[in-house]
Design brief:
Blueprint (H helix, E strand, L loop, with lengths): L3 H14 L3 H15 L16 H20 L4 H15 L6 H17 L5 H19 L4
Keywords: Heme, Iron, Metal-binding, Oxygen transport, Transport
Pfam families: Globin (PF00042)
GO cellular component, one term: haptoglobin-hemoglobin complex
Length: 141
């Protein structure tokens, strides 16, 4: 899936955000809900006011899953199988939402990392996040 160089870009960016999963994830969710309000339907457990504690908590869980994917980039299916089952069979998230999440995540990365988030890094992350989305949607078939 990823070349050695792309894998290096993924790891380099992850090193910059590791330890800050909750705030990055909360910002990602807030951006997703603002730009694509229809996606909030899957987050009924978050209050109408988008309680910061709940956003941080769910953001932490989301980015922790991304961290697992970074560690298992060569075997995403095995690493994300339970998460794929959850999204397909329990939460029944519309798979069309995953590309929206990817877009928002890349905007968050670019806004925080700025010049450190090079074009090559963005391309590698796009490919990596798309790979995650593919794994998460395979169970829908």
């Amino acid at each position: 899936m990823l070349s050695a160089r792309e894998h290096g870009h993924i790891a380099q960016v992850w090193d910059l955000i590791a330890g800050h999963e909750a705030p990055f994830g909360a910002e990602l969710l807030l951006r997703l809900f603002t730009v694509y309000p229809s996606t909030k339907i899957y987050f009924g457990h978050l209050s109408a006011s988008l309680d910061e504690t709940m956003l941080l908590s769910h953001g932490q869980r989301m980015l922790t899953a991304v961290g697992v994917a970074v560690q298992h980039v060569h075997n995403l299916r095995a690493a994300l199988s339970r998460l794929a089952d959850l999204h397909a069979f329990v939460l029944r998230v519309d798979p069309a939402n995953f590309p929206l999440l990817i877009q928002c995540f890349q905007v968050v990365l670019a806004s925080h990392l700025q010049d450190e988030f090079t074009v090559e890094m963005q391309a590698a992350w796009d490919k990596f996040l798309t790979g995650i989305a593919v794994v998460l949607t395979e169970k829908y078939r």
